[in-house]
Amino acid sequence: MVNNVSTNPGALVALQNLNRISAQLEDVQRRVSTGKQVSSAKDNPALYALAQKQRAELASIEPVQQGLRVGASAVDVAIAAGEGISDILVQMRAIASQASDPALGASERTLLQDQYVALADQVGRLVDSATIGGRNLLDGTTALLSVNASTDGSSTIDIDGYNLTSGSTTVLTFDWTGGDLGAAGTAATELADIDTSIDNLTSALAALGAGSNSLTLQGNLLTRVADALEVSIGNLVDADLAKESSRLQALQVQQQLAIQTLSIANAAPNAILALFA
What we know:
Layout: H1 9-34, H2 45-99, H3 106-129, E1 131-132, E2 135-136, E3 144-148, E4 156-160, H4 184-237, H5 241-267
Antiparallel strand pairs: 1-2, 3-4
Helix pairs in contact: 1-5, 2-3, 2-4
């Protein structure tokens, strides 16, 4: 070994080791502070690109879920109103059945007719109240409710709307004025119309219920997909903090040793001074 003061090979090696350890320590500190093994493209380009793709997919799920929730709300409101109307039809049927009795007098029929009309008016109010977010599936203004069910817009859930207003006889076929209760024969005809209305409304409620279930099931499916994506992203980019903690402590010790080694190497040329004492 040549003793000189122009170059210090030991100090150069010690400095290289210190720089290497310091760089590793910076990487570990970044992973500990961010909690990410891959936080930028330079850490691992392939994993970063894959994680970003999955993040984009995850971000697009929330708007679809929001749309499903809005659609489900509209359908559920229609179902609630429809069930209320069904209960009213049961009461109207009882009145029509009573009015079909030939023994009733004119005053009694008038009372029944007034009750019948009042219930029919309540049906109209329920139809009008089945509006949420500008959508009403019972007043004929929404013929079809189409809800996006996929992140790429390729799939929709379609739910039919109905017209339960007094101007339509597609579902409710009874006489909204109650005039048919004036005689036993016409009351019997009205009773048949009420039965038809109940059957039609039951079918409509069944379809709406199936549509609501489809929206709920799709929302639950997307929730599971979102959870799986979050786990997948975590597996790709999250750091093992227990392991990183061990590395951090080890590198901190190595850094201290490297500093001491560099200090010793830098002091080595001072020994040459003894040769000239």
